Amino acid sequence: MTTARAQPRWWLRILVTLILVLAVMGALAGVAIANVMTLSREAAALRTSVLAQNELPARLQVQGSAGPVLLGMVRNGLKFIPDVPAEAHQALAAVRTLSCAVYRLDGDATSSQRAKLTQRALATMKGRGWERTICVQDTTDTVLVFTRPEENNRRVRVCVAVCSGGDLVIADATLDPERLSGLIYQQLAANRPI
Predict the structure, then answer these.
(1) Where are the alpha helices (DSSP H) in the chain?
(2) More exposed terminus of the chain, fewer Cβ within 10 Å: N or C?
(3) Dihedral angle sign, alpha carbons of residues 177, 96, 194, 140
(4) 121-142 pLDDT tens trace
(5) Is 118 exposed, middle or buried, given 0-12, 13-18 or 19+ CB atoms closer than 10 A?
């Protein structure tokens, strides 16, 4: 007596494979969305040092990150929008990655608060291997720009903290120095402010 052999269920294999593929794509999309809505580690470290000890109470206004793929999509999308200045296209072409957050401070930062902010930021970023490139302070504004010495001269990574009046901007970006210097040269040649 022979028993009936079970037929292979090819449709079940296809269904399981399709479910697995969709689950992986959903997980990747979730990770991508989470990355877009968070700061890079370096920008987060700079933010933490600046806002340490709650001397500058701040409320987050907007925060996000964009990698090369998202920025490439934005660059290509801008080609279809009329009346976008050429400078905007050139500036966006110089940016390879960007992570930025804007905070509203509860009141304007005093000069002593901004001095402490600067000292904490300098110590934190130096400990993480960054060098201070620019540090400008006047009566109402503080601008800090840090760079990391790297072997690759085709890309420059910068971390920036700007405290102006009641606003604080923290950014981490990877830039193409050739495109950026070309844009700066054009602006200077046209006698326009940068």
Answers:
(1) 10-36, 41-50, 68-78, 86-94, 111-127, 177-189
(2) N
(3) negative
(4) 999 999 999 999 999 988 888 8
(5) buried
Helix (H) or strand (E) holding 167: strand 167-175
pLDDT value of position 143: 92
Looking at the structure, tell me whether residues 73 and 132 fall in a common domain: yes
Residues 69 and 25 in one domain: no
The answer to whether residues 118 and 142 touch, using CB atoms and an 8 Å cutoff, is yes
Q: Among all chains, which residue has been given the structure tokens 């540090």?
A: 135
Count of domains in the chain? 2
For 144-176, what is each residue's pLDDT tens digit? Answer: 999 987 656 778 899 999 988 888 999 999 998
pTM of the entire structure?
A: 0.75
Going from the C-alpha of 189 to that of each of 50, 95, 111, the distances in angstroms are 36, 22, 36
Residue 118 belongs to a domain: yes
Q: Quick check: is 194 in a domain?
A: no
47 CB-near residues (< 8 Å, 6+ apart):
39, 101, 170
pLDDT (tens digit per residue) in 80-125? 888 888 888 888 889 999 999 999 988 777 778 888 888 999 999 9
